[in-house]
Amino acid sequence: MNPWMQVMRRVVHDPIGSYGYFADRVIRFNRRNKPPHEYPVDHDWRSLLGVSEDDRIRTERLWPEILGTLESRGIRPGPASYLFWNDADPALVQAIWCLARRLRAAKVVETGVAHGVTSRFILEALGERDGHLWSIDLPPRWAPEVHDEIGAAVADRSNWSLILGPSRRCLRRLLNDIGQIDLFIHDSEHTTRNMLFEMSVAWKSLRPGGAMVVDDIDLNEAFDVFCKRVRCKALIAKAEPIRPDPGKRRQGGLFGVALKH
Ligand SMILES: C[S@@+](CC[C@H](N)C(=O)[O-])C[C@H]1O[C@@H](n2cnc3c(N)ncnc32)[C@H](O)[C@@H]1O
Q1: How high is the pLDDT of residue 252?
Q2: CB 155, CB 117: distance < 8 Å
Q3: Taking the CB of the first residue and of the last residue of the chain, which one, N or C, has fewer CB atoms within 10 A?
Q4: What stretches of 141-188 show up as alpha helix (H) in DSSP?
Q5: How remote is the CA of residue 140 from the centroid of ligand 1, in Å?
Q6: Among candidates 142, 223, 149, which has minimal Cα distance to 187?
Q7: pTM here?
Q8: Using CB atoms within 10 A of its CB, is residue 218 exposed (0-12), middle (13-18) or buried (19+)?
Q9: 213 C-alpha vs ligand 1 centroid, how far in Å?
Q10: Are 40 and 127 in contact (CB under 8 A)?
Q11: Atom nearest to 136 CA in ligand 1
């Protein structure tokens, strides 16, 4: 379906849910003559984060398996694979994997599941340890045909709780229920308002020494604004999509990692 048709369907089927998205578009339109925000990229993010040879080998080994699982269901993984949303790219999942192992994460929360590529990597990284992943995802009301693809990449669901609904409604309640977390991943709606909301709420529940990974930070200034606000150490990394990303982008797609002292 072409992108304009998707937008039309979204407005018709979910006018209230579309509000945040369109408000963000208006803000971006009004800023069109201002110089875009440029993030300074940490090209050596792998060594700064401590990605080990073992992390590399294990994430690279998992890729073909996950791609095969998705392809066997008729899904073409990669950019714009789930409507206009992208599946996670290899760099993003390597950072998440490395953090989950290094932090010996037991409680991980993410927003934005789609095919569940990040979810699968997190669950594999938790491995034999007694860890748990809580994922929040809002199935697009305007595209019911993709609902049965949610979490398609996840094989073993025993340590996984999938919560369906908008992060704005579900995230705070979930964090109140489960207490302190080790790792938070944002990969849901990348509007300034929603990103600032999720980062602020998750940060309060993040344990000292914990980390937050935020995808698609190049779309707006939210990550920069947030990191300055909480004065945390942050890394900026470039996405490494498995094929060119048609929807992207000034800086080629970026994700950020915020580390809590
Ligand atoms: C970029 S995709 C997630 C990709 C996924 N992390 C992966 O690696 O395969 C974004 C997902 O966020 C969901 N989403 C959009 N707005 C949301 C919201 N307000 N709250 C929760 N999920 C949302 C979309 O339905 C979609 O499934």
Answers
A1: 81
A2: no
A3: C
A4: 167-178
A5: 9
A6: 223
A7: 0.94
A8: buried
A9: 14
A10: no
A11: 21
Q: Which two tokens stand for residue 52?
A: 């080990």
Distance from Cα 98 to the centre of ligand 1, integer Å: 22
Per-residue model confidence (pLDDT) at position 173: 98
Q: Which of 191, 146, 215 is nearest to 6 (CA)?
A: 146
Q: Distance (Å, rounded) from C-alpha 209 to C-alpha 191?
A: 27
Give me the number of domains the chain comprises.
1
Backbone angles phi, psi at 58, to 5 degrees: -70, -35
Distance CA 43, CA 236 (A): 8
pLDDT score for 224: 97
Substitution site in 19, 24, 111 for ligand 1 pocket (most atoms within 8 Å of beta carbon): 111
- Looking at residue 30, its pLDDT comes to 77
Give the pLDDT means over successive 10-residue stretches in the chain (261 positions): 75 76 76 82 98 98 97 96 96 98 97 98 90 97 96 97 97 98 98 96 98 96 97 97 80 94 94
C-alpha pair distances (Å), 192 with each of 27, 126, 212, 248: 9, 30, 16, 17
Domain boundaries, position 85? 3-259
What's the number of CA atoms in the CB half-sphere (13 Å) around residue 195? 24
Question: Under DSSP, is residue 43 helix (H, G, I), strand (E, B) or coil?
Answer: coil
For 138, the enclosing helix (H) or strand (E) is: none
Task: CATH number of the domain at 89, please.
Answer: 3.40.50.150
